Amino acid sequence: QPHTPEIEQPTTSIDDSFHKQPFIIGVAGGAASGKTTVCDLIIEQLRDQRVVLVNQDSFYHTLTPEELTKVHEYNFDHPDAFDTEKLLRVVEKLKQGQAVDIPKYDFKSYKNDVFPLRRVNPSDVIILEGILIFHDPRVRGLMNMKIFVDTDADVRLARRIRRDTAEKGRDIGMVLDQYSKFVKAAFDDFILPTKKYADVIIPRGGDNHVAIDLIVQHIRTKLGQHDLCKIYPNLYVIQSTFQI
Ligand code: CTP
User: Fold this and answer.
1) pLDDT tens, 160-173?
2) Which of 18, 60, 170, 241 fits as disulfide partner to 174, beta carbons 3.0 to 4.6 Å?
3) pLDDT tens sequence across 220-241
4) Which atom of ligand 1 is nearest to the CA of 186?
5) What is the pLDDT of residue 13?
């Protein structure tokens, strides 16, 4: 009879259930409003925690050959430009404590699923960032905290010109055309109406360090509550004793 090693059966503990329920933060706001900076500052302050950033940009649809020939007529600021079903599947898996592969999007070739995919492990905090991340009620429903980065339109346009010419290799005429044809209208029609879902609105984006400190404090409080239950899984007994 071969010796069968004793395998300790994992039991469902409070600890496991917390790993399956990370704290999910949504960060929305107009294009070039400073969402990335806000996320980076939150991640930097939470460096002792496991934090993962998921960008809505990673879920842009790949353009068909026909759409590619008329790329200047394609609206990248419309909710239909994103594969929201895929985003939902990915976030639901992460929420359940599973590792996921996130697609990579190439702004120059307009292609998604550029290999290698980005492997993301389950984390304590998941940040979902994107212009229309509050648009779909199912995605919104997964969030524990919603932040809207509120930056003036002129600042957003100036940043966009600088960024798209430097990083995306576009000329200024193209950037301004796209802005007046699609970006401005999509902000008014789709992005701004989602501001009402926000728990916190940050004026001036990444420059607003007070707002970011307050947000990080709140996240820490929420994570601290988890940690306390991990250290003292029978905390509810202590609490009930004191309730007498
Ligand atoms: N976009 C584009 N070309 C593509 C795909 C997207 O120009 N092939 C543009 C869309 O028009 C949209 C913008 O990318 O306006 C969305 O990205 P944005 O929110 O600007 O990027 P972040 O860096 O995440 O934003 P922030 O500056 O707020 O950090």
Assistant:
1) 999 999 998 899 99
2) 170
3) 999 886 555 555 555 443 333 3
4) 15
5) 41
Task: Please indicate, yes or no, if residue 8 is contained in any of the structural domains.
Answer: no
Residues with CB under 6 A from ligand 1: 29, 31-36, 57, 60, 76-77, 107, 110, 129, 131, 183
CATH code (residue 151): 3.40.50.300
Inside any domain, residue 209: yes
Rounded to the nearest 5 percent, the helix, strand and coil shares of the chain are 50, 15, 35
Split at pLDDT 50, 70, 90, the class of 159 is very high
Q: Is residue 110 part of a domain?
A: no
Domain of 140 in residue numbering reads as 14-58+123-242
- The tokens describing 146, both together, are 């919603």
Work out the mean pLDDT of the chain and round it to a whole number. 86
For a mutational test of ligand 1's pocket, the pick from 35, 41, 194, i.e. the residue with the most ligand atoms closer than 8 A to its C-beta, is 35
Q: How far, in Å, CA of 58 to CA of 13, rounded?
A: 34
User: What domain count does the chain have?
Assistant: 1
> Tokens standing for 213?
């400190």
Please report whether residue 100 resides in a domain. Answer: no
Place of tokens 């970011």: 212
Distance CA 6, CA 212 (A): 49
Q: Say what the pLDDT of residue 226 is.
A: 59
Cis? peptide before 116, omega within 30° of 0: yes
Close Cβ partners of 220 (under 8 Å, ≥ 6 residues apart): 46
